[in-house]
From TrEMBL:
Residues 35-147 form the SHSP domain. InterPro entries: A-crystallin/Hsp20_dom (IPR002068), HSP20-like_chaperone (IPR008978), Small_HSP (IPR031107). Belongs to the small heat shock protein (HSP20) family. This is Spore protein SP21. Transmembrane segments: none annotated. It comes from Symmachiella dynata.
Length: 148
């Protein structure tokens, strides 16, 4: 038998009402791709520093000449295509998980960047893009003058 003090503080209906809120909190940390089962290509990381951003994208199997990068204001777009593996006459797929064809991914950056200073490098299947903050957007130190 439950004690009177325990029954007074615990309400099973209140617990059930809190369940959707708790479930939303748990799943809110998961990306849309994980929740829906969809794959987002290319996978990207964005690192920010005081005066620049570094974006890395996994684009294994994509020829560097087939990658198109555009920057406009605070938007970065990476487009490209990954070709289909050539199969011999007597070959067939037993498993096919790597996507092929055209892709496009657009990211909104945390600040506008100077497109003219953007640099990109492709090595070992990873595209690295360095985007610099324009001088006009960088923080400026303001000197406080004493009133006379």
């Amino acid at each position: 038998m439950l004690s009177t003090s325990f029954r007074k503080h615990w309400d099973p209906w209140q617990e059930l009402n809190r369940l959707p809120v708790d479930m939303n909190r748990i799943f809110s940390g998961l990306s849309d791709a994980v929740r829906t089962g969809a794959q987002v290509f290319p996978a990207m990381n964005v690192l920010s520093g005081e005066d620049r951003l570094v974006v890395t994208a996994e684009v294994a199997g994509v020829n560097a000449d087939d990658i198109d990068i555009t920057v406009e204001g605070d938007m970065l777009t990476i487009k490209g295509s990954r070709s289909v593996d050539a199969l011999g006459e007597d070959e067939k797929y037993h498993r096919r998980e790597r996507g092929t064809g055209e892709f496009s991914r657009t990211l909104r950056l945390p600040f506008e960047v100077d497109a003219a200073q953007t640099e990109a490098e492709y090595a070992q299947g990873v595209l690295t893009i360095v985007l610099h903050k324009p001088e006009a957007s960088k923080p400026k130190k303001i000197t406080v003058k004493r009133a006379s």
